[in-house]
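Possible regression after last week's pipeline update?

I re-ran a chain I had predicted before the update to compare outputs. Posting the input and the new output here so someone can diff against the archived version. Not blocking, just want to make sure nothing changed silently.
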Amino acid sequence: MDLALPRLVERIIDVGIAGSDMSVVVSTAAIMVFAALLGMVGGMGSTVFAILAGQGFGADLRGTLFRRIQALSFGNLDKLETGKLITRLTNDVSQTMEVVMMALRMLVRAPLLLVGSVMMAVVTSPQLAVLYVVLIPIVLAAVVWIIRRTFPLYGEVQRRLDALNTVTQENLAGVRVVKAFARSVFEVSRFGRTNDRLTDQSVLAARTSAVTMPFMMLVLNFGVVAALWIGGVQIQAGQMQIGQLVAFLNYLGQTLMSLMMVSMLVVRISRAEASAERIQEVLDVEPEVKGSPNASTAFAPLGRVAFEGVSLKYDPEETDPVLRDVTFTAEPGQTVAILGATGSGKSSLVSLLPRFYDVSAGRVTIDGVDVRDVEESALRASVGIALQESVLFSGTIRDNIRYGRPDATEDEVIEAAKAAQAHDFITSLSSGYDSAVGARGVNLSGGQKQRLAIARALLLRPTLLILDDSTSAVDVETEARLQAALADSGRTQTRFVVAQRISSVLSADKILVLDDGEIVAEGTHGELIESSPIYREIYESQLAGGAVSHGAA
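New output (post-update):
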């Protein structure tokens, strides 16, 4: 419809007005109105469906990206920072989504309009069409220059946005620490520097791409002036009619406007391409923990755990492994305590049981079955874990406790809370189990969060229970009641207790002492007091002189 209008204008001028025929003017004007309305309906429909398709694409891409992140192992997530993942899920997806919406309309419309207007211009005036030979190469050269300049600039914009999101996420997550150490001024300064770097880069990229429109208008105006000059001469010579010149100018404008549309889209694509590459980086990441094709989906272990010459490296290129030749056995129903200095590999050891990481050498078996030969969801359904950092989600206390078993009954939730010594403080809250939990449990104390995390693990009724230093914020008396409740539960459950506080492990069936990734002592409390200088030193430093209540957390 757009391509038809200039020829209709030509007809009005050269036939209707030049011949003083009002019937031609009126009938042609009516056709123009109809064509404009038809084009409007088509354009509106195209816009509506492009938005629907673009928004659907964005939703699908976000969903795919989020599912991919959920499928990644701990090792992958250690390398992909939270702030960068947030940028990819939000800003990067938005950039690509907007380009898809533009492309569905403009990437079809602009090339067709470009080709059609050139063809119609040639038909209208072959003499003036020679201008295209000069104008189009200039415009194409400008577009190529803009693409080559803006792509790396916008890639850097996204990287600096990553840095800004990381600083923001760290600050908001640790706002209490910031205020406790009176570092607000420092954090504001750090955020300001990062924000200024992003602003400077964004301005540089925008300034570069902003050259596009003025340059295109300059070329357009140059073409109009040249067409008027040449066309005016031809009209005076009787070789062209006024309507022809008007139609050609319209087609020239359509040609250059379509080129401007393409150049604008190219600038947006160059920015979206940087975002698309960053999204593709995440989609291309292969999980470090991969399932076996023949992995068993039916897994109901009794709880015998064996570590057989296990070594672990988080990075294959590291020279020193985190764990070295770890070998021990835990029988069903035993409580195995793991002691050691910070960084000795305690948390790394227990993280191998649910396959958060895969061993670099040796193997971990449950009831003689290598954990790598069990489907991940089936394996983790048998393992309950309260992590070193108690992470809670926004919602109610009840929702957080039954996070791993959404179908758990009220009685089961209360039973788990009682065993974790959380029931009393929950019922003291105004709304009890319906009390709201803020993001990451911000409205609860450290000890309360730890007890809810333990209750969440207990509700699974797992064959293997891992308590990874999960009582460090709980007082000794509450911890003693928790241990007694676990002992009286009547379940045959193999437990792994990672602790810094030696009072937490005195009654364990087996105590492993780790030092620099190796087991340097193994046995009961009585045996280790006699045989292990390291264990005895830990015991005396924490419990000698009646300092039980002051054990290191």
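Follow-up from reviewer: compared with the archived run. The longest strand covers residues 305-312. Marking as no regression found.
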